[in-house]
Design brief:
5-stranded parallel sheet; single chain; 10-stranded antiparallel sheet; alpha+beta; 17 strands; Rossmann fold; 2 domains; 372 residues
Amino acid sequence: MEKPTIFFSHSSKDRDAILPIKEKLMKITSGVIQIFMSSDGQSIPFGNNWVHKIEEGLNNAKIMFVFVTPTSIESGWIYFEAGFAYSKGIDVIPVGVGVDIGSIKPPLSLLQGFNITSGESLNNFVTVINKNFDLNFETMFNEKDFQILDTTIEKKEPIPQFNDIFTSADYIVSANKNHPENYGGRAEIQTAFDAMQDYLKENDYKISIDRRFNHTIYSVLVNGLRIIQIPASSKPRTDGSDDLKINMSMFSFEDSFELFKSLIIASGIKNCSYLRFLPNAPYGYVTSKETLSAIAYKNPDLLLPDSEHMGTYHFCNTDVAFTIYDKSFDGKNPQYVLSVGFSPENTTAKQMVDCIENLINIGVITKNITTA
């Protein structure tokens, strides 16, 4: 009679943290069950076909515990193994270690699992085994077992919220009626501003209105956005151009960004979709072009340098690009901004969030930065 088989799906980098769990379970169950763990040196003997043995382990398994850790969550491998197991009718159970399984992506988030946060929570392994195989093993995990796991597993800082990293984001576009060729054929500012207001009215947005400078500067406040029309005549030192500026709060970025995209599309403004993110101390940006180039070189699957614009980088497989520059331009009191360009038709708020989180993970956005 074959032993009941359990499959541990995990990142090889988490081997040292997870192996003690396997060993303790083997002790608790007195060898009645078999646990397949690809990196333990036993489930796949040296010299055997690695892929074949994993497939064999999956074919024999009745339960798969998927260890979701800060390391494994970045790999597609656990999703592949879990998907294969689920398709074969295996009971797939996500296990959060240093990661809350309630925060992970589907399909794993749709499955019932548990987080390991204490010695008692480790006993969920025994409970699942007893229930699935009609056994009655004693729960023997304790706080010492949890401490071993907790000190061994690789940890990562949680991604901060947008309103922690940035004070705000802004957008500004200019157009000169006398020299439209200098502005890429963009829409005339008054027309663009009127189109945005029409969009808000047609879609029943609740707005607030403000008029300044003899009613020539006109602004609209809606859903975390302030839209400001600035005619050339209202500027103390005019260059003959009308401006349209949008300030965005970071409090509810995804909702505000989706509305921002819709307004840009409705306005008819072409070839000028971007947001400039202003850092919120103690966060800052890597500003050295040499350092940014080195970071991009180390992350070729994420960043692609723009061949024609030094310091601009494209996120692979997206319509998003970024550059970092000093908006003060005088160098005396530098104000570095992260300017992120995107396609309003093709870029989702989630893609923007993912791109920003990637910049944090690779060190372009960092905390307590002291040098460029």
